[in-house]
Amino acid sequence: MVPTAVDVYTFDKSGIHANPRPGISVKPHVRIDHLAYVNFHTNLLGKGLAKVYQGFAVSLLRRLPSFGIENQWPQHSDLLNFWMLLMTPAMNEAPAGPIIECVNPGFAKDPLQYYPYLHSLLKGWPKWLIPEAYRLQKSFIRDVATWHAIARARFHVSDIDKTTGYDPWWGSAFMRERQQILRHVNKWDAHSIAASDFGFFWGDKQLLFKVREELARVEFHGTADTDDIEKLLASPLLQSICNELLRLRVEVQTIFSSDKEDIQINEWRIPKGSLVVVPAWGCAQRPSSLEH
What is the predicted pLDDT for the residue at 205? Predict the structure, then answer.
């Protein structure tokens, strides 16, 4: 993003809640943090999440036959790469529709080359140190911008499926609403919106027996219809497994900052406006942090 586009995030100090922070006067259409929060909360939780998951399941099931998975044990040199190539396109299509993959069939594979540079980019390394990272980033944003141009030209309200809420251009209600939000942000052009959306694209046997018992109890049929998805979301056992997998297997670098005042944590003082990067995975491995 160009600096003037980034300024929208920098100068929005109104917070994520419905009412701006006391003393802060910001026009409603530039409350980017609040608008993004409401969009995520509405469309990626509860019933909104069920619809996105349904889109993911349908896409994944459609792709499985092309991988030639049969009864025999196949051999793969890289298991992570195998699942990434299978699941990433489905995860992209679920919220954003199929067009991005039509624009660049390698959109699911190319990020494997990009991931090793994420820490360097987070630290602000310049282009001359990691030129390949910036080349890949520019290519991704160009692909997203092409998808946006096609969707803007072709989309019509009548394209929205009344049952699933999906359309073939933007995909989900989440993405349609997101586009409406970003298009009204001051000083944001097509490149800025594309850059923002590129950022978005970023057990044991006893337990297995319990899971199978639970699926049988709720009469889960292994389909992608709404009733089956509701059964999964309502299962405490499956929810606990999901939470534990997030704790143990997902490494996320969470960024915090205070724009109002300095923060004092024990003997550490964090100046106002500073960025704090917290490795969530490391915190989740400490028994003491799970006691609170």
Answer: 45
Q: What is the mean pLDDT of residues 211-228?
A: 66
- State the DSSP H helix or E strand holding residue 264, giving kind and residue range, or none if neither: strand 263-265
225, two tokens: 């219809």
Residues 115 and 132: their CA atoms lie apart, in Å, by: 12
DSSP string, 61-120: HHHGGGGT--SS----S-HHHHHHHHHHHHHHHHHH-SHHHHH-TTTTTTHHHHGGGHHH
d(CA 111, CA 9): 25
Q: What are phi and psi of 25, to 5 degrees?
A: -115, 110
CA atoms within 13 A on the CB side of 218: 20
Tokens at residue 11, please? 């100068």
Q: How far apart are CA 162 and CA 143, in angstroms?
A: 29
User: ∠ CA 90-227-175 to the nearest 5 degrees?
Assistant: 40
